[in-house]
Amino acid sequence: MRVYLDNNATTIVDPSVKELMDPFFCQMYGNPNSLHQFGSETHPALKMAMDQIYNSINANDKDDVVVTSCATESNNWVIKGVYFDKIKNGDKNHIITSSVEHPSVISACKFLETQGVKVTYLPVNDEGVIEIEDLKKAINDKTALVSIMWANNETGMLFPIKEISEICKEYGVLFHSDGVQAIGKVKVNVQDAGVDFLSFSAHKFHGPKGVGGLYIKNSEALTPLLHGGEHMGGRRSGTLNVAGIVGMGKAIEMADKYIDYEYKEVRRLRDKLEDALVKIDDVFVVGKKEHRVPNTILASIKGVEGEGMLWDLNKYGIAASTGSACASEALESNPVMEAIGAEADLAHTALRLSLSRFTTEKEIDYAIEHIKQAIKRLRAISSTYAYAPTNHKSEL
Ligand SMILES: Cc1ncc(COP(=O)(O)O)c(C=O)c1O
Predict the structure, then answer these.
(1) Atom 11, ligand 1: which residue's CA is nearest?
(2) Tell me, what's the pLDDT at 87?
(3) pLDDT, tens only, 131-170
(4) Which of 184, 195, 211, 394 is the most buried (most CB within 10 A)?
(5) How far from the centroid of its chain's Cα atoms is residue 374's Cα?
(6) Is the Cβ–Cβ distance between 268 and 261 less than 8 Å?
(7) Range of weakest confidence among 25-39, 215-229, 323-337, 342-356
(8) What is the mean pLDDT of residues 354-381?
(9) How far is residue 273's CA from residue 354's CA, in Å, rounded to a whole number?
(10) Over 70: is that where the pLDDT of 340 sits?
(11) Gap between the Cα atoms of 119 and 300, Å rounded
């Protein structure tokens, strides 16, 4: 049996999405910018896809949604675009983000630090979320941008987006949210949330890889990263990825349609798996269930090194993650666990399990059985960490 519990890394493409994309490879393969029929015959499908995206996130006609190649690009674009617009050619010099953002946000901010920009990396509490008071203390009249994720990729914890946007409005500061791990898991409504920018990526919600987007409220000016043929109204040059855009449109529409299923059924299966895990001695999960997206568990299994666990589960066809793909080869600890303040040995024992609407009960039962067995096996042979039971005294 093969069980895929790594849906925060990427997801299966919904077959209905693939079906809709198929004709755009060998039949309607024209460049949408061409003046002949091969170009123009792609237009209705592109228009439909853009409408699906606007409707799903509740963007309006004054707003802009620009298609990018991925959320890494969207995140880099906002942060560097705001730098050009408000810092290099303006009178601001400060950006606020959190210490648990995706590397595409953190690394872009680190790069801007080399250009003289001041960046505040807000700490997180023991659930891995920022405290609003810390944001209030950090924000000032030199702040150009606040970039805080909607949901964390490792813990699944939801951030107080509405409160953050209200504070940003009060100070006249632009607010960007990385919505990659939120779309398809919780309802994302950009008007209600009050964000100025929202990044997303199709492959996280059963769409294709290599296509993402950036929502821009009121079509706010943003210096482009990619200059060239003036595609996307001059905001992002590069021949349109027609199949990708068509796929992303359908995928986001489906994600919206299945949101109640996600809240009920995916949550039920996630809770079943989580309840079984925390019954095992010295297994802890980060964050309260109700504070998280419905599909994610970040567990710490005392005495079981994260990578060892992955290899063991992989032998039984179960795919999971230590929570950080970049850390996996170097046997580094989970950075979010570190930010939360977990002790070093616990930070090395992270196991992230992330479900999707394609996950079945049979798969969860199989995973529970094999994770239990793996924990027994690995604790028995563990030499790196001398495992001693602690009667469930949580150290997180
Ligand atoms: C929160 C978050 N932001 C951004 C990204 C990057 O997305 P992409 O793969 O589209 O570049 C990811 C991917 O893991 C993510 O989880």
Answers:
(1) 72
(2) 97
(3) 999 999 999 999 999 999 999 999 999 999 999 999 999 9
(4) 184
(5) 28
(6) no
(7) 323-337
(8) 96
(9) 10
(10) yes
(11) 30
- Between the CA of 392 and the centroid of ligand 1 the distance, in Å, is 34
Query: Where does CATH 3.90.1150.10 sit in the chain?
Result: 259-381
Ligand 1 interacting residues, C-beta cut-off 6 A = 70-72, 102, 104, 149, 153, 178, 180-181, 201, 212
Q: What is the pTM of this model?
A: 0.94
108 alpha carbon to ligand 1 midpoint, in Å? 13
C-alpha 185 – ligand 1 centre gap (Å) = 15
Average pLDDT over residues 111-115: 98
User: What's the fold here for domain 15-257?
Assistant: Aspartate Aminotransferase; domain 2 (3.40.640)
CA pair distance 282, 209, nearest whole angstrom: 37
- Topology adopted by domain 259-381: Aspartate Aminotransferase, domain 1 (3.90.1150)
Which residue is closest in CA terms to ligand 1's atom 14? 9
Give residue 28's pLDDT band: very low, low, confident or very high (50, 70, 90). Answer: very high
| Pocket mutation for ligand 1, best pick of 73, 97, 147, 153 (most atoms within 8 Å of C-beta) | 153
Mean residue pLDDT of the chain comes to 93
Q: How close is the Cα of 199 to the center of ligand 1, in Å?
A: 9
Distance, CA of 250 to CA of 265 (rounded, Å) = 21
Which of 192, 175, 121, 185 shows the shortest CA–CA distance to 153?
Answer: 185
Residue 275 CA to residue 278 CA, distance in Å, equals: 5
Q: Active-site residue 326, yes or no? A: yes
- Compute CA 342 distance to the chain's CA centroid, rounded to the nearest angstrom: 22
Asked if pLDDT for residue 343 goes beyond 90, the answer is: no
Query: Residue 3 pLDDT > 70, yes or no?
Result: yes
Q: Which atom of ligand 1 is nearest to the CA of 71?
A: 10
Residue identifier of the C-alpha nearest atom 16 of ligand 1: 153
Confidence of residue 390 (pLDDT cuts 50, 70, 90): low
